[in-house]
């Protein structure tokens, strides 16, 4: 089986014969057979376009699609969730090198799985989702089923092939287009070029650290001794000049 991993956020484990984590429960290491694991059942009646760059408001609207509780909790006789709208969300940062490396592969992923809507959001600019969905770093790829986050990609390999294998394992959907990355995928919608914008949060953090360091240094005993030594030297120097005059 594929070495890529999903970190499960819902109650249904992913079809992967690797370690996975059930959130809210004790960590479990399991080896499930491919045939016996339930899938996240996706609707295939719509064809979506390229990746959509969204803000917080837009993402909230997308997550509210078909929010029926009955659809989220019911399973069919094969153990699969009742069909619902599927979406993949990429949490990224424009200055992150790993995000830039994953960007063209994610752009191509939306073309390969046309029945799954692909969106990307700047996790640094819109940080309110980070704590809510357990986004501990970027890039993070999250699978959403019927408006509910159900799994997160949990691997260090960010390639189109690894993304596609994980989606196929979790949803049983096959790629609708050949798996290859074009030159246009490096341009956008998610840019593969690092931005040179200033990270003001980082600047403020360094200012705070420097201010704290200066404050505690000024309160230390050796600093006071240094100040007294300089003052005494200055007084002696002035006294010698006055005596010479």
From TrEMBL:
Gene Ontology CC annotation, any one: cilium
Q: Which GO terms describe its biological process?
A: cilium assembly
- Outline the extent of the Thioredoxin domain: 60-175
Give me the segments passing through the membrane.
Answer: none
What Pfam families does the database record attribute to this sequence?
A: Thioredoxin
Entry-linked InterPro entries: Thioredoxin-like_sf, Thioredoxin_domain, TXNDC15
Q: What is this protein called?
A: Thioredoxin domain-containing protein 15
């Amino acid at each position: 089986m594929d070495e890529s991993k999903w970190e499960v956020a819902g109650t249904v484990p992913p079809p992967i014969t690797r370690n996975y984590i059930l959130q809210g429960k004790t960590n479990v290491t399991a080896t499930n057979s491919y045939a016996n694991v339930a899938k996240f059942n996706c609707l295939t009646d719509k064809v979506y376009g390229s990746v959509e760059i969204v803000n917080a408001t837009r993402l909230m609207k997308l997550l509210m699609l078909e929010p029926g509780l009955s659809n989220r909790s019911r399973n069919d006789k094969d153990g699969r969730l009742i069909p619902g709208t599927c979406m993949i969300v990429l949490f990224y940062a424009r200055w992150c090198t790993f995000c830039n490396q994953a960007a063209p592969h994610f752009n191509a992923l939306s073309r390969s799985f046309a029945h799954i809507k692909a969106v990307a959001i700047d996790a640094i600019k819109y940080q309110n989702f980070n704590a809510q969905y357990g986004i501990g770093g970027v890039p993070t790829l999250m699978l959403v089923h019927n408006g509910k986050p159900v799994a997160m990609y949990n691997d260090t390999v960010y390639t189109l092939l690894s993304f596609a294998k994980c989606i196929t394992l979790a949803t049983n959907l096959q790629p609708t287009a050949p798996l290859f990355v074009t030159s246009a995928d490096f341009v956008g919608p998610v840019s593969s070029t690092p931005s040179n914008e200033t990270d003001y949060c980082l600047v403020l953090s360094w200012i705070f650290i420097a201010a704290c360091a200066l404050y505690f240094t000024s309160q230390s005993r050796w600093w006071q001794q240094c100040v007294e030594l300089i003052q005494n030297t200055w007084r002696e120097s002035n006294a010698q000049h006055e005596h010479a005059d």
